[in-house]
Amino acid sequence: MPMFTTDPMALALTALLAYLLGSVPFGMLMAQVFGLGNLRSIGSGNIGATNVLRTGNKLAAFLTLVLDAAKGGVAVLIARATLGEDAAQVAALFAFLGHLYPVWLGFKGGKGVATFLGVMLALDWRVGLACCATWLVIALVTRLSSLAALIAAALSTFWMFIFGQGEAFFLGIALTILVYIRHADNIRRLRRGEEPRIGADKS
Questions:
Q1: Residue environment code for 33-67, b if the CB has 16+ CB neighbours within 10 A, otherwise e
Q2: pLDDT of 131-173, one tens digit each?
Q3: Which among 97, 35, 29 has a CA at the least distance from the CA of 66?
Q4: CA 137 → CA 92, 132, 147, 148, 175, distances in Å?
Q5: Neighbours of 1 (CB within 10 A)
Q6: Which of 17, 38, 119, 162 counts the most CB atoms within 10 A of its CB?
């Protein structure tokens, strides 16, 4: 854990702004821009890139992935540049919470995979690349996006220690727990062998 030296009011403002940035539903926005319909009635009903891909529009899915990752990364980078490492970790947590539980959508957001990876890249690009590589390898081998996300999240704290980011350990644990909470339905389907593979028409 970093030493919390930033003024508490500044950290509170950081948390609020990071949450608001994280809560921007880019998947929903891309669906509107590309005329793809209501994501809530498509596939899994999720607002993330994987569900956008189920519409068949790869560009919209790619943009959703990039923007969902970017909002987490930008929150971390701005907080670090203006206030310090303690603020960066606060921003990471609350940007992630914003994506998972956005106020604009009745606190029913996405699974957080892209935002998680964006946050990790901003905290330490080596850790972020290791998490991205983990996700990619598992996804290519199994074609199970959810399994790839669960394994990437579970290994995130391992990569933090490998690359000397032990002070982010508790943040990594918190983010991993949130990923698993949001993937509870996916975990149940994985256990039953019913989880849809990447490219499937529905969840």
A1: ebebeebeebbbebbbbbbbbbbebeebbebbbeb
A2: 999 999 999 999 998 999 999 999 999 999 999 988 899 999 9
A3: 29
A4: 25, 9, 11, 8, 21
A5: 11
A6: 119
pLDDT in tens, 94-109: 999 999 999 988 898 8
- Rounded Cα distance between 113 and 107, Å, is 17
The whole-chain average pLDDT of the chain stands at 90
Q: Give the pLDDT score at 203.
A: 38
State the pTM of this model: 0.90
Tally of CA atoms within 13 A in the half-sphere of 184 that contains its CB: 4
Which H or E element spans position 62? Answer: helix 58-82
* pLDDT value, residue 14: 96
Q: Which residues, 6 or more positions from 121, have their beta carbon under 8 angstroms from its beta carbon?
A: 69, 73, 127, 128, 129, 132
Whether 46 and 183 have beta carbons less than 8 Å apart is answered as no
Structure token digits, residue 202: 């529905």
Mean per-residue pLDDT, 59-76: 95
Three-state DSSP class for residue 198 = coil
Q: Give the pLDDT score at 202.
A: 45
Using CA atoms, how far residue 132 sits from 64, 81, 121, 139, 200, in Å, is 16, 24, 9, 10, 22
